[in-house]
Each structure stands twice: as structure tokens, then as C-alpha cells.
Specification:
By secondary structure, the protein is an alpha+beta fold. It is 19% helix and 32% strand. It is built from 3 helices and 5 strands; from the N terminus they run βαβββααβ. The longest helix is centred in the last third of the chain and has 12 residues, at 83-94. 18% of the residues are buried.
Length: 110
């Protein structure tokens, strides 16, 4: 199973990211092993998936984006951001609102 970290490739490479939020991934379970990749979809002809590392899911829950905790900015790999800044950035990049239900995925590096 592959998961794209196109917007946070550096955070995955330097292992400062331990939480990610997704609009999908509703059926993901703790213990699942995932290949963290630079990009998984929208590959041009001849391009291949570039795997970065393997991660193991340790916690999964569904929550409103606006309910994220302040400390999750650091876990998302953005220690310089405040909660509302992160919510605005996520909403813009993912084309959703702060009231969107997202899947919060906590993971560890293998």
C-alpha cells in the first residue's frame, strides 16, 4: 500500500512528521504498513513511484479538521505554524473547509 507525501516529502525524509490528515483512508487500521512515497498519482508517462520509507500506522481516527489540536502542527511537520494557519493551508490545498471530516493518521517509522 502506498501513500503520497508530495507536499511534505522533506518532513518524511527528515522524519519530523508523525501525523497526516487525509480526506479519504476511512478504513485504515492501526498496524497497517505503508510505503511513504513522493507521489503516487498523476505520474507522467515513464515516471515511477519514488518510495521514501516504510511507516506503520499506530492510530487512526475521524475528526473535523477544525478540531485538530495545537500540538498536531509539530506532528504534521510544521512546528512554525499555528493551528489556524495549518487548517487554512490544508483547506486550500485539499479544496475543503475547516468543517470537513478528515482521517487523522498517526504513524511511526520502520
Amino acid at each position: 500500500m502506498n501513500m503520497s507525501f508530495m507536499l511534505t516529502t522533506d518532513q518524511i525524509k527528515n522524519r519530523t512528521k508523525t501525523v497526516t490528515r487525509r480526506l479519504g483512508w476511512k478504513k485504515l487500521k492501526p498496524g497497517t504498513i505503508i510505503n511513504a512515497c513522493e507521489k503516487c498519482q498523476g505520474l507522467k508517462k515513464g515516471e515511477k513511484i519514488k518510495k521514501i520509507c516504510k511507516i506503520r500506522v499506530v492510530d487512526v481516527r475521524r475528526e473535523m479538521l477544525m478540531h485538530m489540536k495545537d500540538e498536531d502542527c509539530q506532528k504534521e511537520g510544521f512546528p512554525e505554524m499555528r493551528r489556524l494557519e495549518f487548517i487554512d493551508m490544508f483547506s486550500m490545498k485539499m479544496r475543503c473547509t475547516a468543517s470537513a471530516i478528515v482521517t487523522r493518521i498517526e504513524f511511526e517509522y520502520i
